Amino acid sequence: MQAAKHEHWTSSFTFLLAAVGSAVGLGNIWRFPYIVAENGGGAFVLIYLVIVVIFGIPLLMSELMIGRSAQKPPLSAIQSFGTTRAHKLWQALGWSYLLVPLGILTFYSVVAGWTLDYAVNTAIGSFNNLQDGESAKIFHTLLASPGEQIFWMTVSIGITVAIVARGLKSGLEKSVEILMPALFVILIVLVLYASFTGDFMRSLRFMFEPDFSKITPKLVLLAAGQAFFSLSLGSGAIMVYGSYLTKDISIPKMAVGVAIADTFVALLAGFAIFPIVFSFGVENASGPGLVFVTLPIVFNDMGWIGQIFGVLFFLLLAFAAITSTISLLEPMVAELSERGKFKRARAALYTGAAFWVVGIFVAMSSNILKDVHPLGFIGRFHGMNIEQVIEFFSANVFMVLNGMLVAIFIGWSIKRSLTLEEMGMGGSVVFKIWFLLVRFLVPIGVLFIFLDGIFNISG
Ligand code: PFF
């Protein structure tokens, strides 16, 4: 079979739409607001912003650079840097970059399925006239139902496969050109609506007035983990998207663009959610249920207009999720088709099908298989169900490890002349700062996130 040709983005703008699409997802709109709510508002936001600047941007630049320099998907890219004995060891990093996104895809597509389920159910009025406690019950019924979750997970993987199968130009680019502007418009409409009807000033204070006494090592590590996930680092998505960049595009500019847009969306999601949550007095509105339990109550209280905004909100989440799932499937599909193993469409179908099967187990982790603890015989994993084990290894262990190793790879292993050339900044101060960060601060800092992820050092 003939190997597929490596393609390129039509412009730096389409790259930005796609990379921001990958970064902006459930992490920004679902997870960020509830973690902020649970962890001291402004203090968390402040630390988060600092981490995006000192860890996030340098790592985005690093991953984009590897992809762009090699013009190959992640595994091939890392393999292409050399053939020495030491380099053979680095290939493990390539494999990890290839597999981590698929691990994430299995649980991410289940939650993406919930958002589709909620969009449809809000539209058909299933959440109208909610009685006390009913919203929580509906959410728990969903978690308890393997069939409902598997159905919506199948829809979300199906959409993802259909997009990725069509290739870079007619699949990925076309979809982000529609979904990303729609996402921004919906988000702005929701923020405007929330600021007119809700308690905007309180949200502003909540998000931007840091209570410094709340800054603890645990908070810092939590913010770092969140930033990592939110920026799609350590998981092949950014690297593969970087590989479709042409040589004339500035990597530092693209990295800064992605980081700013991603952070901006996370903050806006807070401003879409907190004002209405505050003004409706649903005070204990935190945790994963913030979006799936509390918001339907609030939307219901607002009558028909709430129903419209409810549909918009869950569509927003679904769009954000789909532009992320396509970036999770793309690394493997690009690898298989560019190595000539399968045509792209088949590669997308087979990979999607394989991970759909794993997704079924994930969807059953909260119900039929909730008492199955695959690694329960090891103390650390005691009580973790299948979903939690997959999430732990892909998001807490290997994703973070990839970030740390990629910094070491660039800082210490590959030729500095190549790095200088790819960054296109000469030996400027910015380059020197970036290089210092990547050599020292990033690996050491990320090591702490990694150790905390495994051993929970911050308690
Ligand atoms: N950045 C996405 C989010 O915040 O929801 C999640 C994600 C997408 C992580 C793609 C990793 C990835 F490769």
At a glance:
With 459 residues, the protein is mainly alpha-helical. The protein is built from 18 helices and no strands.
Structural description of this entry:
The chain is an all-alpha fold and 459 residues long. The protein has one domain (12-455): Hydantoin permease. The chain is built from 18 helices and no strands. Helix 3 (42-70) packs across helix 10 (217-230) and helix 3 crosses helix 18 (429-455). The mean pLDDT is 93. Bound molecules: 4-fluoro-L-phenylalanine.
What is the string of helix and strand elements?
A: HHHHHHHHHHHHHHHHHH
Determine and state the CATH class: Mainly Alpha
| Main sheet characteristics | none
As for the CATH topology, it is Hydantoin permease
The number of distinct helices, counting runs of at least 4 residues, comes to: 18
Q: What topology emerges from the helices and strands here?
A:
Layout: H1 12-23, H2 26-38, H3 42-70, H4 74-79, H5 85-123, H6 134-144, H7 146-165, H8 167-197, H9 200-208, H10 217-230, H11 237-243, H12 251-279, H13 289-301, H14 303-338, H15 344-363, H16 386-413, H17 416-423, H18 429-455
The structure holds 4-fluoro-L-phenylalanine (PFF).
Keywords summarizing the entry:
single chain; mainly alpha; 18 helices; Hydantoin permease; binds 4-fluoro-L-phenylalanine; 459 residues
